[in-house]
């Protein structure tokens, strides 16, 4: 490898974004050698200007991939990235349509119902299935409507924590790790990890909570060399494993936006009903005063 130096002398790191060939750092080189590899090629999958994945190829001997072959690989990676982006966009649009259809149905029924919480409670399973949740809580004043095997103590603790922090007041709040977001609740979670919530009426404790179960992930990797004496004895053929706990499937942007919109609809309904109640009280008061006079 030949070192490459920048033109400026300000000490800024050299931008190698568009570099076709580059030498990796010494640690990856040592790791590849211990793995019996003599060459490697890396092909990034970029979707919407963000790194989505990487295709890595190895060769057991020293090999410089010819430029025509690299060009063909670059074209194939661009085509694959375009196909992946199209599929992801189709999935996103389909999910948005399902969420919007649910929101429209709920809004139509809540406008005709005396209490919005009753409509949400009656369709709690549909709400859970559409959002990919396993439990739902709808609270209004002193009434609690629940769906899913969640202990009442956990629901109460979550409501109290959200009320104290105000995380879901005005906008939807989402986390895929309640044990990290709310450490005092860790002992009560019992396998629940993801939370998506929105508070729509502070005066009556109106709130919607959706929960997702923990999804343990097992991560496997080769023994990566580090700059220690032990690194010289590491064997890449002996993989390491670690199981990550306390995380659920992450909430996607469409989930958060949909619950945010539903919370805005509920706030408008609450405001309209309060205004209607004030008008009714004013009319009754005026009628009573007229009879007295």
Write a structural description.
The structure is a single chain. The chain is α+β, with helices and mostly antiparallel strands and about 290 residues long. Helix content is about 45%, strand content about 20%. It has 7 helices and 9 strands. It has helices at about 25-35, 65-110, 115-120, 125-130, 150-165, 180, 255-290, and strands at about 40-45, 50-60, 135-140, 145, 175, 190-200, 205-215, 215-220, 240-245. Strands 4-3-7-6-5 form a 5-stranded antiparallel β-sheet. A two-stranded antiparallel sheet has the order 1-2. Strands 8-9 form a two-stranded antiparallel sheet. Helix 2 runs parallel beside helix 7 (about 255-290). The longest helix has about 45 residues, at about 65-110. The chain starts with about 25 loop residues before the first helix and ends with a helix. The model is unreliable at about 225-235 (pLDDT under 50).
Q: Secondary-structure blueprint of this entry?
A:
Elements: H1 26-34, E1 39-47, E2 50-59, H2 67-112, H3 116-122, H4 124-131, E3 135-140, E4 143-147, H5 152-165, E5 173-175, H6 178-181, E6 192-201, E7 206-213, E8 217-221, E9 240-244, H7 253-292
Antiparallel strand pairs: 1-2, 3-4, 3-7, 5-6, 6-7, 8-9
Helix pairs in contact: 2-3, 2-7
Short descriptors:
293 residues; alpha+beta; 5-stranded antiparallel β-sheet; two-stranded antiparallel ribbon; 9 strands; 21% strand; elongated
């Amino acid at each position: 490898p030949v070192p490459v130096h920048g033109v400026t002398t300000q000490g800024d790191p050299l931008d190698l974004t568009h570099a076709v060939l580059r030498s990796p750092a010494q640690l990856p080189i040592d790791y590849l050698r211990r793995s019996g590899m003599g060459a490697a090629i890396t092909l990034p999958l970029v979707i919407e200007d963000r790194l989505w994945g990487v295709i890595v190829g190895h060769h057991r001997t020293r090999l410089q991939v010819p430029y025509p072959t690299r060009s063909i690989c670059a074209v194939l990676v661009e085509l694959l990235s375009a196909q992946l982006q199209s599929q992801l966009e189709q999935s996103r649009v389909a999910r948005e349509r399902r969420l919007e259809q649910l929101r429209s149905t709920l809004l139509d029924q809540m406008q005709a119902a005396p209490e919005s919480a009753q409509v949400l409670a009656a369709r709690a399973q549909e709400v859970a299935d559409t959002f990919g949740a396993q439990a739902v809580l709808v609270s209004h004043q002193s009434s609690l409507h629940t769906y899913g095997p969640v202990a009442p103590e956990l629901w109460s603790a979550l409501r109290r924590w959200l009320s104290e922090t105000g995380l879901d007041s005005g906008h939807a709040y989402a986390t895929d790790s309640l044990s990290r977001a709310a450490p005092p609740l860790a002992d009560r979670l019992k396998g629940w990890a993801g939370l998506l919530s929105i508070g729509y009426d502070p005066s009556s404790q109106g709130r919607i909570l959706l929960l997702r179960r923990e999804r343990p992930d097992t991560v496997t990797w080769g023994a990566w060399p580090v700059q220690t004496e032990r690194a010289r004895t590491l064997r890449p053929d002996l993989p390491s494993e670690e199981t990550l706990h306390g995380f659920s499937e992450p909430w996607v942007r469409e989930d958060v936006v949909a619950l945010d919109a539903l919370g805005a609809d509920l706030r408008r309904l609450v405001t309209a009903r309060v205004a209607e109640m004030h008008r009714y009280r004013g009319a009754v008061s005026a009628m009573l005063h007229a009879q007295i006079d």
